[in-house]
Design goal:
Chain B: Keywords: Cell cycle, Cell division. The complex is a heterodimer of chains A (271) and B (131). With 271 residues, chain A is of the alpha/beta class. Chain A is built from 13 helices and eight strands. The longest helix of chain A has 17 residues, at 146-162. The N and C termini of chain A lie far apart (55 Å). Chain B has a domain at 19-97: Cell Cycle, Chain A (2-Layer Sandwich). In chain B, a hairpin with a 4-residue loop joins strand 1 (61-67) and strand 2 (72-81). The chains are: A alpha/beta (271), B alpha+beta (131).
Chain lengths: 271, 131
């Protein structure tokens, strides 16, 4: 049985799709059969981030409606063997996501895959509720910023009350925090919430800290999950997060400002 | 960073304010998440009790909730109608009681506000606690 992971946040633009793409790719790199599903019906973007936008024929909604077979809608990643993408519809709306339909697709996927990563849309309406409903594990993607932290707390409340596990009185959905767009230099200047501040407020375990990085935009430009840019700090931070998810004890990097040499300091000053 | 910034007293870091604001607002949001909104009910029941003994005007009632860090204050302001001599006596004593913190009521006022302030811990401020 595959494990269902939801990437959720409440707030938009914090890095759910970037993180879903990176995380799913990371799990596949570690040898697990992984599929990543776009739940943002009408605002499809996971395909672009994964670089498979030109290979979309059928989608998640077609499968739910019985218009296509799951095998026809799944796109196999060209770079990594164990990785598949299930894109969503660009034209329909979120009402197309029925609980029964989503359950049927997830059940079928969990026979073949070790991990099913659900990329949630922003908000707490149908799309987001469907993405988290069947989850076994939730990765809460949060920026060190007041509105994002508050919305994350709201989503934690929704997970605790409106997920399948909550409704059926099963073991609660496990939760981990992924703090993205972290800028250690601004933190040091007292302009940004510290990792510890966010942890204290949300009170869930830390999966990883992804530093603010130019590599993220570069990767999305070319349709490559940023985790494949192994030279970048964001790529390395995602690799670490995947290792931690798999139970390895990895020290957190990129949480303090990197020491600069005198030369680069002088250059920066004059720039 | 100029050399002058070295001499200026550092302003209070904005991140510290962010954390404090979040802790306060979220303590209340979490407390409110678990139960139904009890304030309207509480107001109705309190008024019903007072109305049993005193004839009050439902429109001259003010309920305020002030949310603080680890304690909230529920403030109930009810205007009591002033009638007869007994009411006048009450009015005088009430005036004395409140003279310290509000401007003296004008003579000939039809009513006199009596403040019933119930300060209590409505929430326990347990920021880390998740219910």
């Amino acid at each position: 049985m595959g494990k269902i992971i939801v990437m959720t946040s409440g707030k938009g633009g914090v890095g759910k799709t970037t993180s879903s793409a990176a995380f799913a790719t990371g799990l596949a790199l570690r040898g697990f059969k992984t599929v990543v599903i776009d739940f943002d019906v009408g605002l499809r973007n996971l395909d672009l981030i994964m670089g498979c936008e030109r290979r979309v024929v059928f989608d998640f909604i077609n499968v739910i409606n019985g218009e296509a077979k799951l095998s026809q809608a799944l796109i196999k990643d060209k770079r990594i063997d164990n990785l598949s993408i299930l894109p969503t519809s660009q034209t329909r709306d979120k009402d197309a996501l029925t609980r029964e339909g989503v359950e049927k697709v997830l059940n079928e996927l969990s026979k073949d895959f070790d991990y099913i990563v659900c990329d949630s849309p922003a908000g707490i309406e149908r799309g987001a509720l469907m993405a988290l409903y069947f989850a076994d594990h939730a990765v809460i993607v949060t920026n060190p910023e007041v509105s994002s932290v508050r919305d994350s707390d709201r989503i934690l409340g929704v997970l605790a009350s409106r997920s399948r596990r909550a409704e059926q009185g099963l073991e609660p959905v496990t939760q981990q925090l992924l703090l993205t767009r972290y800028d250690p230099e601004r933190v040091e200047r007292g302009e940004m919430l510290k990792v510890d501040d966010v942890l204290e407020i949300l009170a869930i375990p830390l999966l990883g800290v992804i530093p603010e990085s130019q590599a993220v935009l570069r990767a999305s430009n070319v349709g490559m999950p940023v985790i494949l840019d192994e030279a970048s700090n964001a790529g390395q931070a995602y690799l670490d997060a995947v290792s931690r998810f798999l139970g390895e004890d990895v020290e957190h990097r990129f949480v303090t400002p990197q020491k600069k040499g005198l030369f680069s300091r002088l250059l920066r000053r004059s720039a | 960073m100029s050399i002058f910034s070295f001499f200026r007293s550092a302003p209070r870091a904005s991140a510290v304010q962010a954390k404090e604001r979040l802790q306060i607002v979220m303590a209340h949001e979490r407390a409110g998440r678990t139960g139904p909104d009890y304030l309207p009910m509480l107001q109705q029941e309190l008024l019903a009790v007072i109305a049993k003994y005193i004839d009050i005007d439902q429109n001259k009632v003010e309920v305020k909730l002030d949310r603080g860090g680890d304690c909230s204050t529920l403030e109930l302001n009810i205007e009591l109608p002033a009638r007869e001599a007994a009411a006048k006596a009450l009015k005088e004593s009430a005036k004395l009681a409140v003279a310290g913190n509000r401007p003296a009521a004008k003579d000939g006022d039809e009513s006199d506000p009596v403040k019933l302030a119930a300060g209590g811990a409505l929430t326990n401020g347990g920021v880390k606690k998740r219910r």
